[in-house]
Amino acid sequence: FGYRLGAAYEIKEYALRAEIMYRSQVDHEASGTFTNDDSAAVAAFYGIPIGSSVSASGTGSLPQSLELNLQSGIAPGWLAFGSVKWTDWSVLQTLNYTITNIGDQEKNFFWRDGWTVTGGVGHQFNEKISGALSLTWDRGVGTGADIFSDTWTLGAGAQIKHGPGVLRI
Q: What is the pLDDT of residue 13?
């Protein structure tokens, strides 16, 4: 089980909005089966014939996170926005599991905490068309044992109001 807890504040006259959201860590326990699909080595060494299944179980934790979102009007028809999110990925150092006949296993991650930072601007061109641009940096959680590195993302979007519907791109 986990929970989310948040608070928000708004001043409409300035298009000012602030929100903070906390998500708790969630611990998982799972059980199922391991099937030896094609490994002759597993069949020979552990006695699990190819095509057969044995029971398996494991435990792991998904991280807590804290996110702050802000926006504010900066001029008539213009809006600036941004967010900062911290995710406690360092809680997932290893994934521990057990496979019958094979024994205790460990998948190593050694992840570090993640940070995601976004900033952007939006503009209402007229009553029917508006658009936004944003730039996001996401710090990779890898520590060299995997391939999760930093990423930069440029985002663009548009909204067109026409008739009874709205088209968002």
A: 93
CA distance 83 to 67: 7
- Decide: residue 145, CB within 10 A, 0-12 exposed, 13-18 middle, 19+ buried: exposed
Cα angle vertex 64, ends 61, 65, to 5°? Answer: 145
Q: Is 90 helix (H, G, I), strand (E, B) or coil?
A: helix
Cβ proximity of 161 and 124 under 8 Å: no
The pTM for the full model equals 0.80
List, run by run, the mean pLDDT of 10-residue segments along the chain (169 residues): 96 96 94 85 80 88 95 96 96 88 87 95 95 96 75 96 84
DSSP-assigned letters across all residues of 116-131: EEEEEEEEE-SSSEEE
CA dihedral 18, 24, 30, 34 (to 10 degrees): 50
Pure H helices in the chain: 40-46
Q: Is 86 within 8 Å of 79 (Cβ atoms)?
A: no
Distance CA 108, CA 94 (A): 4
